[in-house]
Amino acid sequence: MDGSDTNDDAEEQASADRIPRGRRTNAGGNRTVCLLTTLNPERGLSLALRQHLEEEVPEIDFTLEPRDRVDAIWICGYEPGHAKLVRTLREHHGDAVIVVTGREPVEEWESEVADAGADFAFSWPVAYGLLENVLRGGLPSKKLKARRRQGLSA
After folding, report:
1. Model's pTM, two decimal places?
2. What is the CATH number of domain 4-153?
């Protein structure tokens, strides 16, 4: 071990600390609502994930059922070639934060999901503190579009 894992953990914890612990609700005063979408057709796995997330991140109301208004969308288990799903969700939920997680290497599919409207792309697993932070609108400098603009201006 070269110590880089420790640095990654410290950065993720610092990122998680950027949203004050007292801020548990969205702008409307309700818990943040996150639509949980998976590419895996096995409904039992999705239910188990939602239940686990309810315990790990109780500040967010995770749902598997489509709603008219959601604050965030988490697309789990992304595989290259499924950008249409991201695009469709962005069209229906223009103001929602869209987070996409999938297998390494993220570089193989990150630009695909960014072009389709995703705000964040991470490899799985992702730290729950970081996930909570981005689903609730934190870390704007880490957004895919912000990083792309930085790359263009450099």
Report:
1. 0.75
2. 3.40.50.2300
- E strands, 80-151, are 97-102, 120-123
Cis ω before 105 (30° cut-off from 0):
yes
Domain boundaries, the chain: 4-153
* 41 vs 16, residue with greater confidence: 41
| pLDDT for 138 | 78
- pLDDT score of 29: 59
User: Of 40, 95, 104, 51, nearest to 72 (Cα)?
Assistant: 95
Other Cβ atoms closer than 10 A to 31: 16
Q: Do 120 and 100 form a contact (C-beta atoms < 8 A)?
A: yes
3-state secondary structure of 33: strand
